[in-house]
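Checklist before submission:
- one chain only
- standard amino acids only
- sequence pasted in full

Submission:
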Amino acid sequence: MAIGAPRHRFLQIQIWLLIPLSSLLIGLGTHWMTSLVLNHPLPLQAQLASYAYPKTRITLSPSITSIHIKIDLRDHQSEVKIYSIGSSLSAMEFAFPETDIAHIKAHLSQQFGIDIYQVEPFIQYSD
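Returned file contents:
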């Protein structure tokens, strides 16, 4: 019986050595597989598809109720008063060094991020 005891103890040591060795091999194998998958380049079509979404511009412009434009031909300047709701400013004033209506509409549409045709219904001209 004395002969079998050291052999039994040797088998226990082998089993306990297999656990860290197998976990080391699994860890290295998964590291290799992960780096292989993550470093794999995407096909060109997949890259182009990810850039195909249009960029959107979100504006939080107030609800415009009316736009009063006063054009001074002598000074070549226009005064614009914009009345709105839904904002802390109920009235905003702008001065443009323009007398051309198309340029003033373009400035206003650019300022509020809306189309020129959406600006036109609110415009009122005064002397």
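Reviewer check: The beta strands are 63-72, 77-85, 91-96, 123-126.
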